[in-house]
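Researcher: Sequence recovery benchmark, item below. Answer with residues only.
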């Protein structure tokens, strides 16, 4: 009987460990990544440049999140070039409140050969892609908070929260801009998603190659409403 009780206790402990989400609690830091920059302009069409649009959108997003009480960090605050790994290193080395967890949101603008291509979409990393949990850039707080979890556990939970955030962003965007085509949540081998240590999404706001979407994305009112939609999604986590 005693042996059975010990066995049951061990099972309960194991179940508790497996069910304890390391990305639970409140979002305590939002890392905002403006795609491209400096000598890397990104996509260009209709008199617009991706690097300028992404920075402006990210500035609106940071302002909205700060207004709501979130701690934020920008990977770039001006027209500067960063290697993809540098962006990940900034995120992985960031300071955050250990009672919560950080999230990473990268903003990009789409482009296509067809000028009729349109719509909004959000990417997460592919489910079979395993992120590396430790690197020289990993902050002490990240290492401390997640050191008791296996890579398999962290990848499972990270993927779950990333997908949830991506879906929330799509939902909020559709409510704010019902006339814009919704391309939904997708997964892809993007470096900034594969090499960040926290729930991460990459947002493709619209197509710069589409004149109507280009005009819309250049609008300050659209950028502000988009910032509110993404912030609402973060609130929902």
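Model:
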């Amino acid at each position: 009987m005693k042996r059975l009780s010990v066995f049951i206790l061990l099972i309960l402990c194991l179940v508790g460990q497996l069910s304890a989400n390391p990305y639970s609690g409140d979002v305590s830091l939002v890392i905002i990544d403006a795609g491209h920059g400096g000598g890397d302009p990104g996509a260009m069409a209709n008199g617009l440049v991706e690097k300028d649009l992404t920075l402006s959108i990210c500035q609106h997003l940071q302002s909205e999140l700060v207004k709501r009480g979130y701690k934020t960090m920008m990977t770039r605050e001006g027209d500067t070039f960063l290697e993809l790994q540098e962006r990940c290193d900034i995120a992985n080395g960031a300071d955050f409140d250990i009672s919560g967890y950080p999230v990473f949101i990268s903003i990009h603008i789409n482009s296509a050969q067809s000028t009729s291509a349109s719509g909004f979409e959000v990417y997460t990393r592919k489910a079979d892609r395993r992120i590396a949990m430790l690197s020289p850039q990993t902050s002490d707080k990240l290492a401390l908070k997640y050191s008791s979890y296996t890579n398999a556990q962290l990848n499972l939970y990270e993927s779950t929260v990333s997908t949830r955030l991506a879906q929330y962003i799509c939902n909020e965007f559709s409510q704010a801009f019902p006339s814009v085509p919704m391309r939904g949540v997708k997964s892809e081998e993007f470096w900034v998603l594969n090499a960040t240590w926290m729930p991460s999404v990459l947002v493709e706001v619209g197509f710069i190659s589409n004149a109507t979407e280009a005009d819309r994305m250049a609008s300050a009112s659209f950028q502000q409403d988009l910032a509110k939609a993404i912030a609402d999604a973060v609130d929902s986590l």
